[in-house]
Specification:
The chain has 82 residues and is an alpha/beta fold. It is built from two helices and four strands. Helix 1 links the parallel strand 1 and strand 2 (27-32). The chain starts with 5 loop residues before the first strand and ends in a 9-residue tail after the last strand.
């Protein structure tokens, strides 16, 4: 299994990855630019260590520096200014 830590998902969309991680005991933050996506994810009934917030992956204004151990995203890199 995954060891506990803090995970950031860039572009949580409809929460498919978060649902696959439902047994994860660390902290998960999913961000999406879409308030509707975040609202949808917040209704999935995941444990309280799962948080979903509206944020822009180019800004990460809701994510404190050095607070994340692992970050991932699916299909979002082409939206970013790298």
């Amino acid at each position: 299994g995954m060891s506990a830590g803090s995970v950031l998902e860039l572009g949580c969309f409809r929460g498919e990855q978060a649902l696959r991680m439902a047994g994860f005991t660390g902290s998960y933050v999913g961000i999406d630019i879409s308030p509707a996506a975040v609202e949808y994810c917040n209704r999935l009934g995941l444990p309280r260590q799962f948080r979903f917030v509206v944020d822009d992956a180019n800004q990460l204004s809701t994510i404190p520096d050095a607070s994340i151990d692992y970050a991932f995203g699916h299909g979002v890199l082409h939206h970013l200014d790298l």
